[in-house]
Specification:
Length: 316
């Protein structure tokens, strides 16, 4: 019988889903992704996660619960490091434990550890470990992984900016973790709302990774967190290419990483440019009307600056 693996549509699903989905499918596994976030998933997540967790982690709980009776396994890797020499948020390391403690009667969890600080050989071992849940042939597992990796790289290429930003009337860079930017329930469709005003949107995923790294490496301090490197590198790229008219950072309440990264990003913008900057911090109580008002005001201010450039402060 074909086995089913559940992947919660939350956290780094938004970055790695082409890789994970293709890998499992190549091994003949049926992949079930939880539904896009909705009120019920959010409420279940809030009800079942520890109070101190950030909203994306609470949401992850809700997505796992929604898969509970539909799959044979749930894939919750323990992510320690996804780039050599860097770390990601500690919440990702403890995610499988958090889920097992908070949620009962779950199917078996595939909770292998992914740690790029270890050797390439151990990465191959990790891939074999996951694959062996479904297939005993090591060659076939590695073949599935290489196909998945190619699909993932192609997918990243599709995101890249193809047009010249200077040809666009106005551009806004939207910063944030992938699950802040692409979970449209969590962020209340901010990206679409801004696009509807005629403004072109740029996200870190659309900037060439080589450019981001080059800019991040030029930063005065070493950036040890993957999220920080990506967001600071994207900000510096936007400033140095003079390609954007505004920068919005989407964060969520109780994000420990952002409490530091936002401060760095804001300092970089203020020291190196006069680009307007706005921070939107969302939580489960954020009202859509308030978010809409702030977006409208920010967009209006960017448009008005064309006429009154010398009179309007970039920073409120
Ligand atoms: S980076 Fe922030 S939002 Fe993401 S899991 Fe960690 S604390 Fe939560």
């Amino acid at each position: 019988m074909i086995k089913k693996v559940g992947i919660p549509r939350a956290l780094l699903y938004y970055q790695y889903y082409p890789l994970w989905m293709r890998f499992f499918k190549e091994l003949g596994v049926e992949v079930i992704i939880s539904n896009p976030t909705n009120k019920e998933i959010l409420n279940e997540g809030i009800r079942n996660a520890v109070d101190e967790a950030c909203i994306p982690v609470k949401l992850f709980h809700g997505h796992v619960l929604s898969l509970r009776n539909k799959v044979d396994y749930i894939f919750i890797p323990r992510l320690k490091s996804v780039n050599n020499g860097e770390f990601i948020c500690p919440k990702f390391c403890g995610l499988p434990e958090m889920i097992k403690c908070s949620l009962k009667d779950l199917p078996p969890i595939i909770d292998i550890e992914i740690d790029f600080l270890k050797s390439k050989r151990s990465l191959n071992n990790i891939i074999l470990q996951v694959g062996k849940y479904f297939c005993s042939d090591e060659k076939q597992i590695m073949k599935a992984y290489h196909k998945a990796l190619t699909e993932y790289k192609n997918h990243k290429e599709l995101f890249k900016i193809r047009e010249n930003l200077k040809d666009k009337k106005k551009n806004i860079l939207i910063l944030g973790h992938p699950y802040h930017l692409y979970d449209t329930y969590l962020n209340m469709g901010i990206i679409e709302k801004i696009k509807d005003t005629g403004i072109h949107i740029l996200t870190p995923e659309m900037i060439d990774e080589g450019d981001i790294n080059e800019q991040a490496n030029s930063f005065e301090d070493k950036l040890y967190w993957t999220f920080a490197r990506k967001l600071v590198g994207s900000t510096l790229h936007a400033i140095n290419t003079k390609g954007v008219d505004g920068i919005i950072y989407i964060s969520t309440f109780a994000c420990g990483i952002d409490s530091v990264v936002v401060e760095i990003v804001e300092k970089v913008i203020r020291n190196g440019s006069n680009i307007p900057f706005m921070l939107l911090t969302l939580d489960e109580h954020s009202g859509e009307a308030g978010v809409n008002t702030r977006i409208e005001a920010f967009v209006d201010m960017i448009k008005w600056r064309d006429n009154y450039e010398n009179n309007l402060s970039a920073h409120g």
